[in-house]
Amino acid sequence: MPTQTDVLIIGGGLAGLTAALHLQKTGIAVILIEKDTYPHHKVCGEYVSNEILPYLQWLDADPAILRPSIITRLQFSTIQGNSIFTRLPLGGFGVSRYQLDNFLYEKFIAKGGLVIQDTVNHVIFGKESFTVSTKNKQQFIVRQVIGAYGKRSSLDLKLKRTFIQQKSPFLAVKAHYTGEFQNDLIALHNFKGGYCGVSKVEDQKINICYLADYNTFKTHKNIGIYQEKVLYQNKHLKDIFERCTPLFETPLTISQLSFGARKTVTDHILMIGDTAALIHPLCGNGMAMAIHSAQICATLLTAFFKGDISSRTELEKRYIISWNQNFKSRLRMGSTLSAILSKEYLAEKLISGMVNIPFVLPMLIKKTHGHLLTVQE
């Protein structure tokens, strides 16, 4: 017999776990399916804007218990090594996905939540409900499905999402290190074909995560040689790598990254987090956006189940509108900045302009970040 529930969430990353906690708090029956066990590392910049702190506190999931680094300043540099510093308007914190995802997972489980380790194979909508089947031959009948399975999945192929057919030239690489780096700083360093983020997470570990042009990367034998030949052209990156010791046996990598917005509703599935859109890492705001998108989705779903939203059509319409209002311009700015930084000449011009006109960089930061996210009881 199929298992029945109100909501089934596919994917247990930041967005999926946050949505699960929110729905659980409002009394909606929810099951989460995640293919991996906890805890596990993920390719991620691991910087979180403080804009989502009030919301996490409302969920009884204050990350302060994880002792994250407190980040208040940003450094930005070009290939030539020219750099500029500024204070972050809201500030943020650094915490690993290894710790944060597991923290949210344990919160959900402790409050009676159900997480099933499995992989969703098919989602079929009909007669106002979804039938979901998994690799381990489990079946679920649910009123609503939320897609929170990350950057790309075989499920995207089955749902015929257009972005999955498009090749992307980007490769992301991430690892943790020990060494010297300022606790309150997040640094974004440009190099030919990409950019690299550096910041502290919990326990004084340094997270280094960079996005590279795959065509440039594949001309080198391995990651180490690529870093020495390409990233080291930026003197700041050369100095950081030479002063740090890797904690991972090998860095984590992920390829075929497709940035920008995707359809936020596909076959009546509400998409959140990276499943709905992937913002360029240089914006340093993907984790906060994932959590914020979960809040939007869970809030509207709660209203739908209470009868305050009269139909599925209205639910989907309101979700798309709210998602666009909060994220569309931020994604557009991320794409624009990425296009500029991919051209060495333009990147140097941008830095020069920001040095001469200091308010430009804080203005760009505000364009890629949101406001403090509060929740009314």
From TrEMBL:
Predominant location category: membrane
GO CC term, one of those recorded: membrane
GO molecular function: flavin adenine dinucleotide binding; squalene monooxygenase activity
UniProt domain Squalene epoxidase: residue ranges: 259-326
Topological relation to the membrane, as annotated: Multi-pass membrane protein
Residue span(s) of domain FAD dependent oxidoreductase: 6-39
InterPro entries: FAD-dep_OxRdtase, FAD/NAD-bd_sf, Geranylgeranyl_reductase, Squalene_epoxidase
Cellular compartment(s): Membrane
Pfam families (alphabetical): DAO (PF01266), SE (PF08491)
Taxonomic superkingdom: Bacteria
SUPFAM superfamilies assigned to the protein according to its UniProt record, in alphabetical order: FAD/NAD(P)-binding domain
PANTHER family membership: CONDITIONED MEDIUM FACTOR RECEPTOR 1 (PTHR42685:SF22), GERANYLGERANYL DIPHOSPHATE REDUCTASE (PTHR42685)
This protein's name: Flavin-dependent dehydrogenase
Taxonomic source organism: Pedobacter cryoconitis
